[in-house]
Amino acid sequence: xxxxxxxxxxIEVTITPGCTPQAPVCVEIPQITASDTPETDVLxxxxxxxxxxxxxxxxxxxxxxxxxxxxxxxxxxxxxxxVDHRDAIRIAAAESxxxxxxxxxxxxxxxxxxxxxxxAARLAAAGLPPDSDPTDIExxxxxxxxxxxxxxxxxxxxxxxxxxxxx
Length: 167
Known about the structure:
Blueprint: E1 14-20, E2 23-29, E3 45-48, E4 62-63, E5 66-67, H1 70-79, H2 85-96, E6 108-109, E7 114-115, H3 116-125, H4 137-151, H5 159-162
Antiparallel strand pairs: 1-2, 2-3, 4-5, 6-7
């Protein structure tokens, strides 16, 4: 029985912020050669990097008995100012239990419970198409981040005080 081959030597990587609109951080491995290509051929490889921990939370951590979904962390990381990461996650837990399709008795919808009659105006103000799905996590994150920025904090959410919002 032969022993496995030794691991490859470490590769130096470059981490680039904002390499695409969809990937705020990319890891670029500049020089990887394939065994069946000449040494001069370089195979560029790019990987999107997802957050490990955002706002003090990682996927599966519980807030108010609800596990934090990876998709919510990703959207918060992409659209919110870092000062708002913790609050965005905690308020989504309080408002919807991380249920993107949640609808309240007062016709509020989504993770952060936007009042349905205001959604069209918020989509337009945030630069999103009018037919955007208001229950889509990325759409919710964008209009919520826009509203938090416009309001100068989490004042529009009654749960903000309960959840200890910082601004």
